[in-house]
Write a structure and sequence with these properties.
Blueprint lengths: L2 H31 L20 E2 L20 H7 L4 E4 L3 E6 L7 E11 L2 H11 L13 E6 L2 E9 L2 E11 L2 E12 L4 E3 L2 H18 L4 E6 L21 H6 L7 E4 L3 E7 L5 E9 L8 H19 L2 E5 L5 E11 L6 E11 L2 E11 L2 E2 L2 H18 L3
Length: 393
């Protein structure tokens, strides 16, 4: 090949390399920026681009099946001290260690550990049912909170008819709940004498700490907390009709004149566009504290349930960085239109702020078609931010 041919070949190679690099850069930019959310046409907001402060999933599903740890996380030293000479019985959900007088004269009892795994709402529901959280205001509530053990834990001691010297502890670590039962008694030959409350409860806490650590839960010097205080009253919910603000409402194409609605602990307010076709609902729910949880913790539970329900029902779902302490957004194109004629595009943004849960739902049609995701969620998020800023500090 002559010198001119070699030069042209070199130039062609350089041009090709530059094109490849430019193509790679363009691909990276598209990847970082995310997919183009414009979905064609001006009706329904097709020319709008989704603009939300998204973040990683707040409550990711468990990726691996739960595996019960060997001996439920209990080492030999712990068993030798708390369940001497016990016979271990493996169960599908946990372990039982039986203490019999034939193995250790003068002692009898049982140590049991059970685990259950599921979704976060399921785990929270199981924990509440197990620890009677729905009835903590009733007289005779003997549950006491345990600090430094998983996400939450409760223990109680019973020494009454049919139950002799027994400590029962329940804890939750993410999507896993655990039950620990410990009962041991001294058999004097003439009568069976239960072990007092403090050492029995301390033993149950020690066992629970071992079990929690074995499944990767956070354990920090667990201890029984002080006696539960009286229930905390619900925070006064602000008037939702005053949260959006005329500027945000007009920007969303809505008539600022509100329609009120109210409930005992839940207050709602709605707006619609002057020509019809679009609507907004702002709802605020206030949560009272229980004897063992404050209002913010109760509101967080409600947010978790709403988060999972919305993610399941929505066509597209986003965890958000704000507003509030926790936030999310969901869109569906098949929401029912008032009057039952056709469907609407619906965007919902919900956030928790302390003991309050705020839900903003913006829905409607444009040109006879459901609003697109961007056309429904962008105004919903803008109004949610205005509502968060208007909440009393």
């Amino acid at each position: 090949m002559n010198e001119r041919g070699s030069f042209l070949s070199a130039v062609a190679a350089v041009v090709l390399a530059l094109l490849l690099v430019l193509g790679l850069v363009t691909s990276i930019q598209r990847y970082v920026a995310g997919p183009d959310r414009k979905d064609g046409g001006s009706d329904g907001g097709g020319d709008m681009v989704l603009a939300l402060p998204t973040t990683a999933d707040l409550y990711p599903a468990r990726t691996k099946p739960f595996t019960r740890p060997k001996h439920c996380g209990l080492d030999r030293a712990t068993l030798r001290t708390l369940a001497p000479g016990a016979t271990e019985i493996q169960r599908k959900t946990g372990c039982s260690f039986l203490i019999s007088p034939t193995a250790v004269p003068g002692l009898q009892g049982v140590l049991r550990v059970n685990f259950r795994a599921g979704t976060l709402p399921e785990a929270m529901r199981r924990y509440d049912l197990a620890t009677s959280q729905g009835t903590t205001g009733l007289a005779g509530d003997t549950w006491r909170r345990v600090t430094g053990l998983g996400d939450e834990a409760m223990v109680r001691y019973r020494d009454d008819i049919g139950v002799s010297g027994q400590a029962e502890l329940h804890f939750r670590a993410g999507t896993v709940t655990a039950e620990v039962l410990y009962r041991i008694a001294r058999d004097t030959g003439q009568k069976v004498q239960s072990v007092p409350e403090r050492p029995t409860v301390n033993a149950a806490i020690r066992v629970s700490a071992k079990a929690a650590a074995a499944i990767g839960a956070k354990v920090t010097r667990p201890a029984r907390a002080a006696a539960a205080r009286r229930s905390e009253p619900a925070r006064q919910a602000p008037d939702p009709c005053g949260l959006a603000g005329d500027e945000a409402l007009l920007a969303a194409g809505l008539d600022p004149a509100p329609r009120r609605g109210a409930g005992a602990d839940e207050r709602g307010c709605s707006w619609s566009s002057a020509e019809g076709g679009r609507s907004l609902l702002v709802r605020v729910t206030s949560f009272p504290g229980s004897r063992h949880r404050n209002g913010a913790a109760e509101a967080d539970r409600a947010f978790v349930r709403l988060y999972h329900d919305t993610r399941k029902a929505a066509r597209s779902f986003h965890a958000l960085r704000g507003p509030g302490d926790r936030a999310m957004a969901g869109y569906r194109p098949d929401a029912e239109v008032s009057g039952g004629k056709g469907t609407a595009g619906e965007g919902r943004v919900a956030f928790r702020a302390g003991g309050l849960l705020v839900e903003v739902t913006y829905a409607g049609t444009s040109g006879g078609r459901p609003l697109t995701e961007a056309a429904a969620l962008n105004p919903a998020h803008a109004i949610a931010e205005a509502a968060a800023a208007a909440l009393p500090k």
